[in-house]
Amino acid sequence: xxxxxxxxxxxxxxxxxxxxxxxxxxxxxxxxxxxxxxxxxxxxxxxxxxxxxxxxxxxxxxxxxxxxxxxxxxxxxxxxxxxxxxxxxxxxxxxxxxxxxxxxxxxxxxxxxxxxxxxxxxxxxxxxxxxxxxxxxxxxxxxxxxxxxxxxxxxxxxxxxxxx
Length: 164
Fold this sequence. Notes:
The chain is α+β, with helices and mostly antiparallel strands. Helix content is about 45%, strand content about 15%. It has helices at about 10-25, 35-50, 50-55, 100-105, 105-120, 130-145, 160; strands spanning about 60-65, 80-85, 90-100. It has a 3-stranded mixed sheet. Strand 2 and strand 3 form a beta hairpin. Helix 5 (about 105-120) packs antiparallel against helix 6. The protein starts with 11 loop residues before the first helix and ends with a helix.
């Protein structure tokens, strides 16, 4: 007899806290040892830097995926955010994914993809508000790490980009 484990919505908060604690302690689930080391090196500092933002959000899972294993229309995405809403359209929880291909691009690119997807939690569209919030995250990240990450203003027209 096959037994299935069902996770009730009330357990998500405990799962989230456990996941955040594990990630902050460099516990990241990954199938390949070399990918695990890369993920630990690149994602753990990001979770620490944005711990407050993450802990106050409905983010419940950060996962790693291979672009080649995605549907054709998603194979070029370096990151994604899966959002689950209730019937009223309110966000219940979300899961943030980073591709192994993004991780291979290094620290600053991985940070940009992570911050971009983190911004999508509160701003689903690539509009002015989205990019203002992303700029705030980038600024904080650059101050803390001494990096020079820059917003690519993805999704804006050239005219909209000029307002930044």
